[in-house]
Design a protein that fits this description.
The chain has about 325 residues and is of the alpha/beta class. About 50% of the residues lie in helices and about 10% in strands. The strands form three sheets. It has a five-stranded mixed β-sheet with strand order 1-3-2-5-4. Strands 6-7 form a two-stranded parallel sheet.
Length: about 325
Amino acid sequence: MTAEASEEPSVAQKTESDQSDRLDPWIEDGNIVLSVQGKYFRVHRSILSCYSEVFKGMFECTNPSEGGESELIEQCPVVHLHDEASDVQIVLKAMYNRGFPLPYYKKVPLSIVAAFLRLGEKYDIEQLMDEAKARLCCAFEPTLSVAAKMSSFHSGTLSLFPGITGGDPHNFQVMNLLQEMGLKAPLPLTMYQCVIACPLTAIVDGYRYDGSFCSLSPANLQSWILMKNILENFRIRLAQSLRVSNNCVVQSSCVLHIRRLWSDEATVGQPFGSWRHEWDKLFCDACRADLNMWRNAAIQKAWNQLPTAFGFDSWAEVAKNDDFPSLR
């Protein structure tokens, strides 16, 4: 035997000596070992097979080594997974330590929701997918009244995902996860809030929050640009619609106040805000009625266009894609 051959330990010997690479859960009576990014989890075939037909199939045909023999650690077959070790650990702990789902009033970190989504889809674990999607169900229906309510929250403090903790204030991480997993129904309303509340510097350069760097994915950045363009075109149409009524009785006064109305609309920066009561006294009855009607028509047209930033034809199509379950 050559020196090189004698110095090469077996797979089992290599792993036996690296106790620090064994992560929780490492169950002493487990009968299968999952290898992920150089880390190991010892678990039970039956537990994982109960949740996932994909795992069940993998365990029935564990990959042999090049020598034709199965790779073993403490007499347990080794199955290699190509995932993030942190995601696998989250999912395994969920399987062993609790049932599904958590009560709706208990908040869940975004990292757990992301792991549930990614591995739930990959390994066809329905319980994980349902719980993660329920957490990502937007707290508000996408309606103009909700958009108007958002317009009164200049800092974007209206929480769209109250069941999740650990996300950044402008929901970059949530939107990126939704886009990654093809779960687009909550995106138009969430992006609208981002467009009206998030500073441009954060959109362009990203920003740091709670030790993490947050930036929009390329796909979401493109959607932000499309939605921003829709809202800018809305402002142009709104400016064109703000004119005196054909039945105006005090044109000099109404023309002057229309300029104030446009100034208020342009500087506040909240496109779908409600008509303000203080505007009523500025105009004659005819102008007040027509301005309100023209303004609402421009708002409705812009609102109807927002879903196109994510490839939807209408809000009705968004609703058809909203299959997010409820935890209640």
